[in-house]
């Protein structure tokens, strides 16, 4: 409850919190419904001038198992000049994708902008040149719910066979 008002659960992945708005003269009681995506994930993908790779990454996200765990994908365009915004506008996926335009401030600032805009309690960061394994959400959810305290999860990266792998990349 919030200030004595009811707490409603209409859908398993969305918690609706009802709060009373300020009283206005001549207006009946008004309530504001806040949606908090409880237990779901937002995937944040920063990008800059990697349109083709980004589209491949987004298509892999659309193939994830347990799509009900995914609230949204936020793509933060960090000043692309290669037609990324236009390609995203034409992209038709079965996952909700929001695009945020961020002036060229770098990947860290783009990730922060994505976190600020996220509707979910849990955030997964994904690079624009990664292809998500189909069980990405399932594994993250399993590991997160297995622990009773905050946890950070880092996934394994399989490098393409034709790419030289340094000692740092193996870390």
Task: Show the helix and strand layout.
Elements: E1 7-11, E2 14-20, E3 31-47, H1 51-62, E4 70-77, H2 84-90, E5 97-101, H3 107-117, E6 120-125, H4 136-146, H5 167-170
Parallel strand pairs: 3-4, 3-6, 4-5
Antiparallel strand pairs: 1-2, 2-3
For the record, give the distance between the C-alpha atoms at the N and C termini, rounded to a whole number. 46 Å
Radius of gyration: 19 Å
Q: What is the number of strand segments? A: 6
Helix content: 25-40%
Structural class by helix and strand composition: alpha/beta
Shape label: globular
Average pLDDT confidence is 77
The H/E string reads EEEHEHEHEHH
Are there runs of 5+ residues with pLDDT below 50, and where? 1-37
Largest sheet: 6 strands, mixed
Number of helices in the DSSP assignment: 5
Strand content: 25-35%
């Amino acid at each position: 409850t919030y200030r004595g008002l009811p707490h409603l659960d209409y859908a398993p992945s969305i918690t609706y919190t009802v709060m009373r708005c300020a009283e206005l003269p001549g207006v009946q009681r008004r309530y504001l419904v806040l949606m908090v995506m409880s237990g779901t994930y937002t995937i944040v993908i920063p990008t800059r001038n990697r349109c083709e790779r980004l589209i491949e990454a987004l298509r892999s996200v659309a193939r994830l198992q347990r799509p009900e765990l995914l609230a949204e994908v936020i793509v933060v365009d960090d000043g692309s000049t290669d037609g990324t915004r236009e390609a995203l506008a034409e992209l038709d996926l079965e996952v909700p994708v929001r695009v945020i335009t961020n002036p060229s401030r770098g990947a860290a600032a783009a990730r922060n902008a994505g976190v600020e805009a996220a509707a979910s309690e849990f955030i997964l960061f994904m690079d624009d040149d990664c292809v998500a394994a189909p069980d990405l959400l399932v594994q993250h959810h399993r590991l997160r719910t297995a622990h009773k305290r905050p946890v950070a999860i880092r996934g394994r990266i399989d490098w393409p066979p034709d790419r030289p792998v340094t000692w740092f990349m193996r870390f």
